[in-house]
Amino acid sequence: MFFLDLNDKQLVLTASHLCLHDVIQLSRVNKRLQNLVYNNTSVWTTDHLFPEGDPSITDRFVARLVPRITRFYGIQALRLVRLPLSWSGYLRIFDQFAHSIAYIDLVTSGVCLSDLIYHLSIFAGNLAMLQQDNRIPITFRQYAADSEEYCSALAATGYLGQQSWRNLTPLLSSLELDDPPFERLVQFRVSSTDHAEDENAQIHQLHFLTSFLAGKALAFPPPQRTNTHSQAHHHHKRSRDEEPVIPIPYPKHRRHDLVSPSMHHRPYEASSGYT
C-alpha cells in the first residue's frame, strides 16, 4: 500500500508523531495533506512545536507557519528557548496561542528581552488607551505589523515619555483590562542567555507587563538555567506521551515599578529557515 492510499484518520495519526519540520514537509506533498496537517488539532501539541535552539525558527518562519495552524485550546504551554527570534516573532506566536496558554518558558538574549519589553510596553499602553476610549482593542499581530503607528499614537497621549516608560506605570497599575489577551496565563518563566547585570530588572518589567496583559498577578518562578544540548533530540520522532510537565510554583506579588528598557538596542532580524 502506498502512503497516500491511507485514509485521513491514518494520515493524521502519522503526522501527529512526526517532528515539526517533518510535519511541514508532509504538508507540502499535496493539497489534501496540507489541509489535513493544518486543520487537525491532534497534529499540534506542545512537545517540539518550537524545538529548543533550532536555528530555523526565525521571524519569517513563524510569520508563515503559525497563522496556518488551526486555532484551538489544546496548546497550554509554550517553550521558547534559545530561538533566533526578534520581538515581532514572539508577538506573532502570542497572537496565535495567547487565548489558550497557561505557561510560558522564555529564554533569549538580554538584547531581545529589552526589545520585547519595549514593544510590550507600547502594546499594553495602547490597549489601555483604547479601552478608556471605548474602542476595539488591538491584537499582537496588528501591533507587530505596524508598531511605529502605535508608538506614535501612545506618544501623543503623554503617557509615553521620550526617554522613560515610567509614565505608563500609573496607567497600567490602575486599569484592569476587560478582555486580557493572556486570559489563561498563570506562569511566565523568563531568563536571559547572557545573564546580564540587569536581568532581574528585565524579569520584573516583563512580569509587570504580562500580569497586566493577563488581568491578574502571575506566578513568578526563578529563572531556569537550561542546557544548550538538552534538546538535541528534536529531529527525532515525537512521542505523544512526552508532554512537558511545568509545575505551578508558589505565587509572588505583582510588581508596579516598570523600569525603562534600554533605548539603544534595536531588534535583530534572523534569516529565514522556512522556504
From TrEMBL:
This is F-box domain-containing protein. The lineage of its organism: Eukaryota, Fungi, Fungi incertae sedis, Mucoromycota, Mucoromycotina. It comes from Phycomyces blakesleeanus. Residues 220-275 are annotated as: Disordered.
